[in-house]
Design brief:
By secondary structure, the protein is mostly helical. Helices cover 46% and strands 0% of the residues. It has a domain at 26-88 and 163-215. It contains six helices and no strands. The relative contact order is 0.15. The chain crosses the membrane at residues 53-72, 183-208.
Length: 232
Amino acid sequence: MSQVFLPYEMQQKMDMAGSGAATSHKCKISMLWNWYTIDSCFLARSWHVTSRGMFAGTCIGIFFWVISYCWLHRFIVEYDNSIINFKQKKHGIDACQSCCGPAGESNNIANTDDSSEDKHSSSDHQVIDVNTNRPGSDIWAPLLQTFSHRWFIGWLKKKDNVIYPNPLEHIGRSGLYLMEWTISYLLMLMWMYYNGYVIITMILGYFFGQLIFNYTPLTVVPARTYMTPSCQ
């Protein structure tokens, strides 16, 4: 006979109202905080815990499951970075070009000559008085710009300083993001069983996952100075 998934309290009442036959193992499911071990079920009927050893193995598996989720997130980030580095080397793009103009001149305002009026009057370094803007323009202008969906067709007008993945790379990235999205929702369903042992296991797994796979640099600063370096 197939298992019936009902709240554990309702199953108890049904068993007490029965003919006194021996109670079979049934899934304990509750939408409230619980500490169920034996007869706890997760995600599918086949994931039915029938012993304490099986529950311990479930917690260990969930722990490494969350750690693997943290690894996947870092893997996706590093894959994007690898695509950028590969294309920069392939096309001979200097990293300095991201902060400087085509002629190697720095775009940093702090490095411009304050005595030169021509630079301040040029279109590349046009000074805008933000106090003269109409009230509310700071809110509506970015919103309308986003709704215009120019970012959606931006790849049609590729610029020299913008790096896009090729179609195969984009398909691979989409597949990786799909995996991350699917795993995140499955972990959310595990959390919604409100099992105290499982929730504690997931918290510890995420902590150690971040501890292992998210040790990344906060920023890059030049040696002996905290000022933005010139490209000259």
